[in-house]
Amino acid sequence: MAASASMILQSPIMANVIVFKAAEHPIKSVTIFKSSKAEVVRTFRIDLAQGQNKIEIKGLSSFIDPLSVRVSGLGEARLYDVVCRVETSLGPHGVAAHEFDDASEVIRLLHVKRDELAQRKEIRLQEKTLLLQYAESLKGEHVPPTQMIEFMKTYITQSQKNVEEVAKLDAEILGVDRDIGKEEEKVMTKKGQVNGRVDVVIVADGEVKVDLVLTYIVSNAQWQPTYELHAKTENGKPSPLVKLHYRARITQSTGEDWTDTSLTLSTVSGTDAHTIPSLKTVKLSPKSYDVTNAKKKAEFVANVKGTRFQQIAELPKHAQQQQRHYAQQQQYQPQQQFQANCSSIQQDQPVQHMMMQMAQIAPQYDAYSEDEFEEVATVGPAPVTIAEPTTIVNETPVAVTFSVHGESTIPSDGIDHQVSVAILPFESVISYITIPKIDPRVYLQCRVKNSSDYRLLPGSVRVIFDDSFVSTTRISDINTGDDFECTLGDDAATKVTYSRTLKTEKSSGGAFTETTNTTTYITKITVHNKHAFDIDDLVVRHIIPMCEDRRGQVILRKPDGLAAAKVGQTVSLQGGLKVAWTKSDGNDSKGGDKEGRYEWTWKVSSGGKVNLEAEWDVKVPGESAWHEVQV
């Protein structure tokens, strides 16, 4: 194999030099990391000679990491040297020179083949012309009728063969033209370059065959998880059994085509330094004083003429001493403290006057004015800052590895290629949810539990219901045992009606009371189950307005008992109907009772109806108009 797939050169220095073209040898496996990097493993069957052997492997990815190259599988042979570099010589279209030579050679050979076919076709055409010319030269007075009949038979037979041969050659020429177009397209559309090269020097004690394993890291390779949730109906009812098709979108432009390769997908970054961190000593100390700034302030004060200005530099210290003295007497002599403060202010009036003069001079010294007067003006102790509780959370990173079944082919074209990771059967719970205030339709919500051994990474989910596309959603990290939700579309066999009425009463204010308007809102909702089966989990969501202005007031009267309930508490009504406050749709900590969100839950039999009613009063001042605003 070494003689057919490589080139052996004799050198006076190296006993055996073997040159490999990477594209002629398959890639054994590829592991793609989340850091846009991939680990590539190649194998080479080599016949080593006794002594030193130099193996030159060309045509590797230009995005190879030279420090990541590893060589193994040498058996008793010894590794002497490994050198990895990226060549800079390029051919047309930015392609590596040797790669372009290979592609040009393939195209050249195809053109040679096409020329050969064209010449064979030309010979057949000339044969046809000569045969026709010979037939036209024959005349009746020179050729007996019997010979003419035999010639005609021969002419017809040969002409038919000629036509068939020309048609066959035309088909072969067309096929070669297509092959030439494909090869030219590969050169033009291929993403990435293959200028990488690895030279390996191996020492062997004797002639031996080894399977050299070359492992290296390349960049420009990504993968993203994607999913398809397949649900179906049984006898018109959504089945609780669903299947999640776990797939991955792989894109690579490394310059190397991964053909019939074993793929592994990893959530590891591939660039982390796996070393145990060390804890450094932590000491507490007072906040450092800015010596440079203090020096500037002292120089500024010294440059100002007049001895009275020098008293200001000592003012903060003097004021702090007074404040400490006053603080000690505060709890015993509050009135005396107030008088002392007043007298202190009167005694410091000349100093304050000088401060005002400095404020007029300070703009000439822009570098010091802001800091200088900020400190002089501070005559009391600095306020104590109370820090809010801070929580720092460090979570252990979880690394997940997925093996793609079978062998995959991912060309270096920069296009997304989708491969299958697994098909996971899950149990689900189907709920019928409606929000009639917004849309009087019933939606099928599927709550799926991840009962597999796979961790579901964040990604898009395409929902397929009865082999028809329904919607696209996204999921976050779903660990084993966690749930996620998807919408299966709307249920056309369940009818919902919604109506709201209001009535406003005005109360005229007296001499000591203001005019108020009280509006009573009544909402009525009807859900009709037209299915041939019962709806086990019907959820009707609703909301009432909330008022943050103290002048307004909202009083909830129906559903009964909901106004006094807390978030998470379920209120049971007649006939098994239940109502409860719901959590906010956002990520904040507000509950449904703070935002007016609540929902009814009930079981509706086949052909049955459920009537729901909500009532609340809105009491507001009557001098201005109030309206509902959605936020």
Automatic annotation (TrEMBL):
Domain DUF4140: 30-124
Matches recorded under Pfam families: DUF4139, DUF4140
Domain DUF4139 stretches: 213-621
InterPro entries per UniProt: CHP02231, DUF4139, DUF4140
Name assigned to this protein: Mucoidy inhibitor A
